[in-house]
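Handoff note, outgoing to incoming analyst
You'll be picking up this chain. Sequence as last confirmed:
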Amino acid sequence: MHVLLIEDDTEAARFLVKGLRESGYSVDHAADGREGLFRATEGQFDLVVTDRMLPHIDGLAIIELMRRKGISTPVLVLSALGSVDDRVKGLKAGGDDYLTKPFAFAELLARIEALLRRRSSSPQATRLKVEDLEFDLLARRVTRGAREIELTARELKLLEFLMRRAGQVVTRTMLLEGVWDLHFDPQSNLIDVHISRLRQAIDRGSDHPLIHTVRGSGYVLRSES
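Most recent structure output, in case you need it:
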């Protein structure tokens, strides 16, 4: 399951990201409201966990803008503001749950699981598709047109990360954290080698390459048609 955490407190974010990843979740972190809004509206997440008081754009405004755009992703609000009126405002803004700080991490996990169970009662996409590239998430099977593509477990994870963000530039930092669970750049060609292998497997024999390098920024998987 893929979670977006929007939290400006560095220590709190580090603790939450570590705990969620150890609990089996894939986590993207946005450090302020502006980045959080961009990620929440451009990416594909199973759940958004957001602080309420954030730089640039507050958490409730992010939720309201998500709902206006028709994004139904469940949102759990974290806040030190714990009065009844504050909780009501959070839920009326479009939040699905509201947890007051400080909280026990076990309770956070339980609330996340409850929200995801509620969402899983409705049909979920089990395939990712960009142009003629298809990824069957259940069978872990990748095809492009009539051609089946054999990939390693790491390459499958990398491809899923890119396809879930199709059309969005993905930075090296995002790849290191989301695919390798590294929080530092090892200053090696680790990413370049894997992207090169994936590009060769995906784009080989096609007139329409899907994986592109964005100089100085990162990579993007997108259709050229």
